[in-house]
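Reopening this ticket.

The earlier resolution said the output was attached, but the attachment link was broken on my side. Pasting everything inline this time so it's all in one place.
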Amino acid sequence: MLISDLLKENACLYPEDSALVELKPSRNLRKEITWREFDARANKVANALQSLGVKKSDKVIHLMMNSINWLEAYFGIIRTGAWAVPLNFRFTAAEIKYCADISEARVMILSEEFRERVEAIRHLLPKIEHFIFVGQKTPAGMNAYEDLLAGAATQPLSVRIAPEDVCGLYFTSGTTGDPKPIVLTHANMEFACVVEQKHHYQTKQDNFILIPPLYHTGAKMHWFGSLLVGGRATILTEISPQYILETVSREKGTIVWLLVPWAQDILVALDRGDLKLQDYDLSKWRLMHIGAQPVPPSLIKHWKRYFPAMQYDTNYGLSESTGPGCIHLGIENEHKVGAIGKAGYGWQARIVDDKGKDVPVDVNGEIIIKGPGLMREYYKNPQKTAETLKDGWLYTGDIARVDKDGFIWITDRKKDVIITGGENIYPVEIEEALRAHPKINDAAVIGIPDERLGEICAAVIDVKPGVMLAEKEVADYCAEKLAHYKRPRRIFFEKVPRNPTGKIEKPKLREKHR
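Inline output:
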């Protein structure tokens, strides 16, 4: 069943039940819609787009902040048979143009936060025939979103959409270069629903607290498990430790997916006494899970001291695998914290050498995956597609090892490996060691050029609030924890830049410290 049909089914089965809640805590705003309203609004978007000439296989850019409008617009787009093209809300005007040019989109739906960026390049986007503006004071020459919907019908369109048809064009986060456009099908999306529900056992009674950006495959595909069973979701549009705990408490949240920095911020606030658990009713919160980046075992051990009975899980995935779950730890495997797990439901995973042969236990190799969630291709890039998809396997570019029990442990990104004096250094190992230091909030490790060794290891360290940390103290700590060749030769004390999905923006660091 297509995900758009799942929405229709929930509207039939649970018409008056709450489907989505949207919160803006700083303004004390709360918005809620039922499954019937959600389905009707999505149909209005689809009919409005069709009235503007949007047809099957057209591209519609989707540039919005997290909101109920985001999801209803998304489902409206795909109900026309068009490709949804969700864009990163941090993209600059130049990056928005780059994505518009590649996708050859005919329509753009944008929220008011992007007015200036889009207006700056609007004259450079001749292929976009219609701009649909979500917000107040619609710019001249754009269509007002609510005005379009006011005149649109709520009846579903009669567009024939097959599972193998394309559903969306997703641009990678660009942490290792320019964003790459990934083609995903309706069948990919349906499979993501099943994988998520199989892994985290969502039921109709769950309330998924949805915080990460919806343009990314991670957050939306985790929510798909709730869509499958008609479970409610709460969209928290502002992020702070206090807002997260307040939302779980007031909305009776049961599942929260956090990025590492957010979990770390909650722990720091609890450690300092800025937040007190007794001030919140967190009794319904059954699962905290993390993805999008390697998870320091020290973080989870710290978390379990505050939440000993809470389930924990981590998932590994890529935009090329329709988001998370191709490798999955599982809530029953907390004894393996630090590993990313084994192949997820319906997936296969291997660790191979440069010739595509399986490597022995505890030997580093590249993760390759196979399953119904694999992308169709990189759009308009057959060379990159051929490099990545080989004999039905997707080569992820991530380096890992498998232990004697079959659990996979991420070592690093293939492109991030540092070669110093002929020795391979895997930054993730050093980053995990540094984050275990009681005074370190976050850390990133990069290679910087060196005349003698080719590259040397450099660490960017974000110190916890209210404490002092000297370079010698870091060096002494590393001398105890790391082999000599792995120890950082340069230390920089500054904030670690991360993108909206929590991944370290290493190209920025390399550019700054080269």
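Reporter confirms the inline version is readable. The chain is about 30% helix and 25% strand. The longest strand covers residues 440-450.
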